[in-house]
Specification:
Number of helices: 16
Distance between the termini: 74 Å
Strand order of the largest sheet: 2-1-3-4
Strand content: 5-15%
Number of domains: 2
Order of helices and strands: HHEHEHEHEHHHHHHHHHHH
Number of strands: 4
Structural class: mainly alpha
């Protein structure tokens, strides 16, 4: 009986000792992380690079794009007109119609093509419309006059918008001339319209029926810029310890545990970037009222995972290449490639198969897929499961190279 009580007491003591030991170890971990966290907060307030990357650049980017795209898309592109048939009512009506379009603003009338071309080359206008001499008379006598328009395609968006309005104006001029001819043959207006346009096209742009360029660009460019800042600042924060030779000091605060050091250093940035991400989402979907068919929660989850995935990729780069200059160069390259390969400017499905596979290695691609499925299309979240999972998998990347970073902190001597 006594032996039984002793055995039971010994087991209880061992259990209490194990519990106390684990609590003590956990307290050491917490304390070391807090010490690194406090040290990093002091560095954030004293280094202008942190302040620029955490606050100035993301906020300026948001103000810039929100201001530029406030009206939905750029409007009133300056264009010119060379009207060699200025005495006719038909050509004057055509010019007034062109000037009434949203995208173009006729700022100058030129006497000939040479002057208009010179103005376009100097950047005063983005294009000009040429109406030949005798246009009205030739159109009414069915002699097929030629309307010409010229655009400066070195400014792609302005040229595309100008071309769209110029072409629309030409189509309207053609329809007007055809209607005049049909009227002369005794057709009613309804009959003339049915002959000019026998098939009516009913267009329904899905996802963005307003064709709002702000909605198209801001939803992806702002997270992309945020991702770039995270890449750069993460590699800088971890790499500057190597450059300054303060890696051992950092590890000493972290109880010589590299994970404690990483968590403590990146936590302040994580809090700030997640806050910025939530601010972006709140303004885009709350204030600007961009489409959000599945509610705020799916995009909030995507933003939090996107920030953590971006930090993990930046940490992986500096751990894999523990040199500040090279690590930041690779991070910059990867961030810039993200703009092209994410799929919001050029569809991934139209890329080479090798690039389609490569696109999965970019966090921005998966954030874009979540945005398209959840915010624009309103699909059930199960359709975005792979994208959410991919963002989680990015967080495993640092574990494959973290030992190199630990070794660099202990032994690497930076050579400038």
């Amino acid at each position: 009986m006594i032996n039984s009580h002793l055995s039971e007491h010994r087991k209880q003591s061992q259990a209490n000792f194990g519990s106390t030991e684990s609590q003590r170890n956990w307290s050491i971990v917490q304390w070391s992380v807090i010490k690194v966290f406090n040290r990093e907060c002091r560095r954030l307030t004293s280094d202008w690079i942190y302040q620029f990357g955490l606050f100035v650049a993301p906020i300026m980017a948001f103000i810039f794009f929100a201001t530029v795209m406030h009206e939905g898309s750029p409007t009133e592109y300056p264009v010119g007109v060379v009207n060699m048939d200025s005495q006719s009512t038909t050509s004057r009506n055509l010019v007034r119609t062109l000037n009434a379009f949203q995208m173009t603003n006729i700022v100058e009338h030129y006497t000939d093509i040479a002057h208009a071309s010179s103005a376009m080359q100097e950047g005063k206008i983005y294009g000009f419309y040429y109406i030949p001499r005798g246009f009205s008379q030739d159109a009414n006598s069915r002699k097929q006059p030629i309307l010409s328009f010229y655009t400066n395609n070195s400014v792609l968006l302005a040229a595309s918008m100008g071309m769209k309005d110029f072409k629309m104006g030409s189509e309207l001029a053609k329809a007007s001339a055809q209607r005049q001819v049909l009227r002369g043959r005794g057709f009613t207006d309804d009959q003339a319209v049915s002959l000019i346009q026998p098939i009516v096209i009913d267009v329904h742009p899905l996802g963005n029926p307003w064709v709002n360029y702000g909605m198209y660009l801001n939803n992806m460019l702002l997270p992309a810029i945020l991702m770039m800042m995270i890449f750069l600042l993460t590699t800088y924060a971890m790499g500057v310890e190597i450059k300054e030779g303060s890696g051992r000091e950092l590890l000493n605060l972290a109880n010589y545990n590299i994970m404690n050091a990483v968590v403590g250093k990146l936590l302040p940035q994580t809090f700030i970037y997640i806050t910025l991400g939530i601010l972006y989402l709140s303004i885009l979907y709350g204030y600007l009222h961009y489409p959000l068919n599945n509610g705020f929660a799916p995009m909030l989850l995507a933003m939090v995972l996107f920030v953590l995935a971006s930090q993990s990729v930046g940490l992986f780069f500096i751990a894999l290449i523990p040199t500040l200059r090279l690590g930041m160069s690779v991070a910059t390259l990867w961030a810039v490639l993200s703009f092209s390969i994410a799929g919001f400017t050029f569809p991934v499905i139209a890329m080479h198969p090798s690039l389609q596979a490569l696109s999965n290695l970019f966090p921005l691609r998966h954030y874009y897929m979540i945005y398209a499925d959840q915010a624009l299309n309103g699909y059930p979240m199960i359709y975005s499961a792979w994208s959410y999972l991919a963002l989680l998998l990015f967080m495993l990347l640092p574990f494959f190279a973290i030992k190199r970073l630990n070794k660099a902190y202990l032994y690497y001597e930076y050579i400038s």
